[in-house]
């Protein structure tokens, strides 16, 4: 009886003193739907850990971090930003690639625009506005612009371009009718919502530089032991079969996987 009582008291003390560690993750907007699923799986596996995920363009995330934003991990759609943060002392872990992104031309099913023709669909007379992520800070915007230039279409359509802050906003422009077609991430186009609403054409990866994406644990995570341990767990979790399966579902090409 005494032993059981002591065990009960120990359990109460542990419950009171142990606290859930929350980390703030800055994630590229192309991860929105994949991470919604990954977050659920991760928190079911590690119920004491909490993830607060902020989505945005990779360039904006980089700028916010060097200006003091308290993020603990960054998942960038451009490996270059993560490497730069490492060089500048903001990242305390190894820097590693977690995925390669693919880009598509997307439109609503009822738009009357046949994107199966490929990128030349942007020349359809029905296309008045073309949504594209701002290439100043969004890697998918860079890739889309490179594809337009590769096919010598940029000068023909540059006056029709509508710039989104990130790849999610770019998709929203097409969804709401602010644009007729848009260059978006395959990972966004493969979400249940956008699969119901629209159709896409996967652009050849030969028309743009590889969208190599990188991750690193940020210095801010080291401010608290539990936070750092959680950051490491999530960092490692992204390499597990469970996380990889979800990433592949959304069209990402992963390290060690063939396109």
Automatic annotation (TrEMBL):
InterPro entries: AvModA-like_subst-bd (IPR044084), ModA (IPR005950), ModA/WtpA (IPR050682)
Chain residues that bind molybdate: 58, 167
Family: Belongs to the bacterial solute-binding protein ModA family.
One GO MF term: tungstate binding
Gene3D superfamilies for the chain: Periplasmic binding protein-like II
Pfam families reported in the protein's UniProt record: SBP_bac_11
Subunit organization: The complex is composed of two ATP-binding proteins (ModC), two transmembrane proteins (ModB) and a solute-binding protein (ModA).
Keyword terms: Metal-binding, Molybdenum, Signal
Tree of life domain: Bacteria
Signal peptide annotation: 1-20
GO BP: any one term: molybdate ion transport
Name of protein: Molybdate ABC transporter, periplasmic molybdate-binding protein
């Amino acid at each position: 009886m005494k032993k059981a009582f002591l065990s009960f008291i120990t359990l109460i003390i542990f419950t009171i003193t142990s606290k859930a560690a929350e980390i703030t993750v800055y994630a590229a907007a192309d991860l929105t739907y994949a991470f919604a699923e990954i977050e659920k799986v991760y928190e079911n596996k590690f119920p004491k850990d909490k993830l607060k995920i902020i989505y945005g363009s990779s360039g904006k995330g980089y700028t916010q971090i060097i200006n003091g934003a308290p993020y603990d991990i960054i998942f960038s759609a451009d490996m270059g930003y993560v490497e730069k943060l490492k060089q500048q002392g903001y990242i305390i872990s190894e820097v590693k690639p977690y995925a390669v992104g693919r880009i598509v031309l997307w439109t609503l099913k009822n738009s009357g625009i046949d994107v199966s023709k490929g990128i030349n669909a942007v020349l359809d007379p029905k296309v008045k506005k073309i949504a594209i992520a701002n290439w100043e800070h969004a890697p998918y915007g860079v890739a889309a612009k490179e594809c337009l230039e590769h096919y010598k279409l940029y000068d023909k359509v540059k006056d029709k371009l509508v710039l989104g802050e990130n790849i999610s906003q770019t998709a929203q422009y097409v969804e709401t009718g602010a644009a007729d077609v848009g260059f978006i991430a395959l990972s966004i186009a493969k979400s249940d919502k956008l699969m119901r609403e629209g159709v896409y054409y996967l652009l050849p990866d030969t028309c743009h530089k590889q969208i190599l994406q990188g991750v690193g644990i940020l210095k801010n995570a080291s401010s608290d032991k539990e936070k750092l341990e959680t950051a490491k767990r999530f960092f490692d979790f992204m390499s597990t079969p469970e996380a990889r399966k979800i990433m592949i579902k959304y069209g990402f090409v992963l390290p060690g996987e063939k396109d």
